[in-house]
Every structure is written in C-alpha cells, then in structure tokens.
Amino acid sequence: MRENPLKALLNKLKNNEISVEDALAALKKYYYEDIGYARVDHQRAMRSGIPEVIFGLGKTPEQVAGIASALWGKGAEVLVTKATQEQFTAVKNVIPSAVFHKTPRLITSSPLDLPGVSPAAAVLSAGTADIPVAEEAAVSLEFFRIGVIRIYDVGVAGLHRLIDRIEDISACKAVIAVAGMDGALPSVVAGMIDVPVIAVPTSIGYGASFSGAAALLTMLNSCAPGIGVVNIDNGFGAAALTHAIIRSGGR
Fold first, then answer.
1. How far is the C-alpha of 126 from the C-alpha of 54, rounded, in Å?
2. The predicted structure's pLDDT at residue 4
3. What is the SS3 assignment for 65?
4. Full DSSP string of 106-164
C-alpha cells in the first residue's frame, strides 16, 4: 500500500524534519489544488467519505490525466466515470497501475480486488441492454470497497427470474435496480423486500421512452415505499448513495 503523503508530512513535522511554516504551506495543497483548468479537491474524502471522482465526459484526455495525477499524487485512489479509451491511455501514462473497465466506461487507479468481502449490495438490471449502467454502479461500489452481488436480466417481462433470486437480494443492506423501457423493476423489488432500493432509469428504449424520461417518471411515481431515484444513466450516483446508506448504517 502506498504511504499517505499527508501522514508522512505530519510525521516530518513531529520529528522536526520540517518547519511549521513549510508544513502549513504544504497543508494548503491538501485543501484544494489549482492546476489551471481545475481546482482539485483533496479533502473531499475526509468530508464525504469518498474522494473526488472525475467525470470524464467533456474533458480532454490531458485534462483527465492531469486531475488524476493530482489526486494520485496526494494519496487518493482515482475513479473516472464516462471515460473513453483515449482518456484511459492518458491516465495510464501517469498512473501505470490504472485499469479501464470497458463495459461501464470507468477508469480506476488500481485493480479492484475484494477477497473475502461478503456482498452488502445487490445490483439488478432489468435487461441485458441495461448492464453498462448497472456495471457503472457495481464497479463504483467495489471502488468504495463494498461487496456486490450482480443479478442481471431480471426485468418484469419474466418475473420468475427475479423471484428465483429474491432471498439473495433481501439479504443485502441496499439494492440498486437499473431499468429502461417502462422502468417498472424498482417498484416490483421494493414491494418484496425491506431494504432501501435505489432506482436508476436508463436511456434504453423505443421512441416513446424519450431517452429514459419515461422510466424516470415511472420510478418517481412509484407507489412502493423505500425507493430513492437518481438521474438517467447515473450508475455512479446510485453507488454513491448506496455507499452512504451502508456506511451510515454502521454508526
């Protein structure tokens, strides 16, 4: 495991290897770092429990790599969402251990290995076409060191597929249900279990789905209790909310 640079700095101060003035100057860079095109937030993990995450869409490969390098250099693990292969190549040049997760289009600064971690969250997809968004949620949860059980293609068109796995689902602390088309899966799941359900509408569907707006409205209008809804195709947002639910449950 890499040494935490902040801890190393504090040890230097404790051992009189650095002056108080120099230590204060260095600590300012742990508040945020201005790199010209971005102000990188180095204290977000201390405030919210997760480090700053890079939204890849709209950023150049060089910008993504620069922000990733700044985070990595201060001891943070790096996660890039909605990433491209070109962005990954640029990140790989500054963080050799970086990994590209092709299906969810995520970049992580290291391989995700959770040996012996029991699943705390279930990630469901209504159909195979919803898997990229479901995987964004699942891989993000693993980045947060939360064990995941994946249960895909269990939409309401074949409800028996969901019922066959309901015991596994209800054993988790939270459930992410990802669905496009009519967006009905989260309502069905929430009516069968007693744990929080985070609903994720996807942009999958025919014309009248309005690129996910129909699924979003279905989820917002659900009559089943215990559902929270995130934005269209926002698997990462669902993972962040799930992480907060599971983390706060241990307090």
1. 27
2. 63
3. helix
4. EEESS----TTPPEEEEEEESSGGGHHHHHHHHHHHHHTT-EEEEE-S--GGGHHHHHT
Nearest to 52, CA basis, from 35, 75, 76, 31: 76
pLDDT of residue 42: 83
Q: Which runs of consecutive H residues, i.e. helices, occur in 171-222?
A: 185-190, 213-220
Position 181 confidence tier, pLDDT thresholds 50, 70, 90:
very high
Give this prediction's pTM: 0.86
Question: Poorest-confidence range of 65-69, 91-95, 214-218, 245-249?
Answer: 245-249
Half-sphere exposure of 239 (CA within 13 A, CB side): 26
Strands 119-125 and 227-229: unpaired
Backbone angles phi, psi at 154, to 5 degrees: -125, 40
Q: Token pair of 43, please?
A: 């204290």
Per-residue pLDDT, averaged over 121-136, amounts to 97
Residues near 232 by beta carbon (within 8 Å), at least 6 away in sequence: 201, 202, 203, 211, 212, 213, 215, 216
* CA-based end-to-end distance of the chain: 27
> What separation in angstroms does the CA of 103 have from each of 107, 119, 121?
11, 21, 20
Tell me how far CA of residue 87 lies from CA of 56, 111, 112, 179, 222, in angstroms. 8, 17, 19, 28, 38
Spatial separation of the C-alpha atoms in residues 165 and 26, rounded to whole Å: 52
